[in-house]
Amino acid sequence: MLEKIGPELRQYLVANNREELPFNRIERGWIYASAKKENNYEGFGTDRDIYAHQHIFINNAMIPYKIEEDHPNTLDKSFIPCAKVMGAYNKRKRPYRPASIINVSAMSFGSLSAKAIESLNKGVKKANAYHNTGEGGLSPYHSYGGDVVFHFGTGYFGVRNDDGSFSMEKLVKLVQANPFIRAVEIKLSQGAKPGKGGVLPGSKITKEIANIRGVKVGKDVLSPPNHSAFSNVTEMVDFIEAIADATGLPVGIKAAIGKLEQWEELANIMKTTNKGPDFITVDGGEGGTGAAPPSFADHVSLPWVYGFSDLYKLFKNKDLTERIVFIGSGKLGFPAKAAMAFAMGADCINVAREAMMSIGCIQAQICHTNRCPSGVATQSKWLQNGIDPTLKSERLAQYFKTFRKELTEITHSAGYEHPCQFKMRDIEINVDDHNLSKELARTYMYNKTPVPFTSMKDLKECVYLGGDYNKPNP
Ligand SMILES: Cc1cc2nc3c(=O)[nH]c(=O)nc-3n(C[C@H](O)[C@H](O)[C@H](O)COP(=O)(O)O)c2cc1C
């Protein structure tokens, strides 16, 4: 019995503020308070050991960036759109500038409850962010009007033929019928279980899930480790181009990083053919999942900083970074960590578990059992009763707004207008002594390509800006 209730006893009574993983009490508390617009400050100074190994320092400017009266951030302190436009370089028909640099990462209806998905979708609409569908297809709960990135993996849920193969016809129909889909993401892998297929047990396949995913009620469905639509890097690029041509949307890939040979091949193909993904989402090995074997979650693929730095360097060495929007995910939903990610070359952040926490997840870590006590990661109607999407969507939106406001303030403190201006030398990582603490550039051995940023005003006037900013008033 003690073994069973041990985690709860430790979480609430024994563990200190900075001890727990994946997210410690201070991190969770910051998300909860930000989402509720409560006081998220701490008094008396930091309780962190700032001399600890791997601690991040952001170098502030002597005189911070000053915002003038007519600056977009004077009116809206949380306005930070992406500084790059997805699909601009490849001249897609419908390029997209995400109107928020923080967005909801891939999580399916099926792994999350209907009420949770509805709260996230209504929340991104309020925060002018986007909502990534996850692998489980586009559900009615993704369709409350927030920008959507349609994501699919090897199961091609929602866009598959009866034999499980990919259907371009279904994807085109889906995109045409749902103009709020602004981009398509092909999942190659995710940090928690790269290269691992999965089985969706028949017992979990209700009529509703079967309809959305295009599978049969009550019958086990296999998500194989490999895609059947392509089998090598050249074919993958052709597949990306075919989707972009047929839908007009920017197309990206999501992956956790390990070996680099095939990425090198991709970069070479992009260089020679002038084709390729419009965005790349790099997921860290510390990333979350609805369910994964610990051997995978703990050991397969690199943590975000190592994976991202390896990948960015590779694309930078081939002069390709400017045409790709880099998205980072893996516990990056905290302003200082995001500043570091931007300094390393990320253009946007995706958050999954942080978004779950903002709508009530208590990190019970039992997403795989269907018994999530907060109603976020379960299909039990009874457990979902605790979620009021009107309230929870406010919470998600408020978390995003607070996050963006704090990131903007950190950016100004470093003397910049937009976080895309962070450079590797602006952030240091502690390796135990200031003489040894290294700027990111020396730690990861590259400098990021400057993002061609003009001003926040220009971003605000951009015709490709997502969210509701440039939509005519109804
Ligand atoms: C409940 C849950 C479901 C997820 N489902 C997917 C998925 O369908 N496809 C995918 O690529 N990643 C999926 N992920 C991974 C997240 O999108 C994200 O990449 C990862 O959790 C890192 O972000 P985080 O640290 O902010 O949680 C899922 C994560 C969680 C927690």
Short characterization:
This protein has 474 residues and is an alpha/beta fold. Helix content is 34%, strand content 11%. The chain has helices spanning 2-14, 25-35, 72-75, 114-127, 168-177, 207-213, 233-247, 261-273, 294-299, 304-317, 335-344, 353-358, 381-384, 389-413, 440-444, 456-461, and strands at residues 56-58, 102-104, 130-132, 147-152, 181-187, 198-200, 221-223, 251-256, 279-283, 325-329, 348-351, 427-429, 438-439.
Unreliable sequence segments: none
* N- to C-terminal distance: 57 Å
Largest sheet: 8 strands, parallel
Strands of the largest sheet, in order across it?
Answer: 2-11-10-9-8-5-4-3
Proportion in β-strands: 5-15%
Task: Report the average pLDDT across residues.
Answer: 92
Total number of strands: 13
Pfam families: Glu_synthase (PF01645)
InterPro entries: Aldolase_TIM (IPR013785), GltB (IPR024188), Glu_synthdom (IPR002932)
Domain Glutamate synthase: 99-416
Family: Belongs to the glutamate synthase family.
Question: In terms of topology, how is this protein built?
Answer:
Layout: H1 2-14, H2 25-35, E1 56-58, H3 72-75, E2 102-104, H4 114-127, E3 130-132, E4 147-152, H5 168-177, E5 181-187, E6 198-200, H6 207-213, E7 221-223, H7 233-247, E8 251-256, H8 261-273, E9 279-283, H9 294-299, H10 304-317, E10 325-329, H11 335-344, E11 348-351, H12 353-358, H13 381-384, H14 389-413, E12 427-429, E13 438-439, H15 440-444, H16 456-461
Parallel strand pairs: 2-11, 3-4, 4-5, 5-8, 8-9, 9-10, 10-11
Antiparallel strand pairs: 1-12, 6-7, 12-13
This protein binds flavin mononucleotide (FMN).
